[in-house]
Specification:
The structure is a single chain. Helix content is 11%, strand content 31%. It is mostly beta strands and 122 residues long. A hairpin with a 5-residue loop joins strand 1 and strand 2. The termini are far apart.
């Protein structure tokens, strides 16, 4: 399948061996990191043209539009490519939880290292 992704964008992407690019979704206004997913060229093309976050499911091996079944949608305000070309940043308005578990973000469940304890107060 040939993607309609602009060739000038496609040429800047550094993909994994299976043709994917990491995509980080960030809440507009707060900068909160909501989730990490994957995109192929077609998912990126659809995201850029519709402003609806579209990802590639590695487990189902198909495209999915965030919120299409759950109603927890992402309206995309910005898409940025990092300096190495291997990660995309999507700045989004999130409706409902971003995580498939229903949590606000995929990073709510486990804190491996918290803020440092202030030596004077703690």
């Amino acid at each position: 399948m040939t993607s309609a992704l602009d060739p000038s964008i496609a040429s800047r992407l550094k993909r994994t061996a299976d043709g994917l690019v990491c995509a980080v979704a960030q809440r507009r206004g707060t900068g909160e990191v909501l989730m990490v997913a994957w995109m192929d060229d077609e998912a990126l093309h659809r995201t850029l043209t519709t402003r609806r976050a579209t990802y590639y499911s590695r487990s189902r091996q198909q495209l999915w539009v965030k919120g299409e079944t759950s109603g927890h949608t992402q309206y995309v305000h910005e898409v940025r490519l990092d300096c190495d070309g291997d990660t995309l940043l999507l700045v989004v308005d999130q409706v409902g939880g971003a995580c498939h578990t229903g949590d606000a973000t995929c990073f709510d469940a486990t804190v491996l290292l918290g803020p440092p304890v202030d030596a004077e107060t703690g």
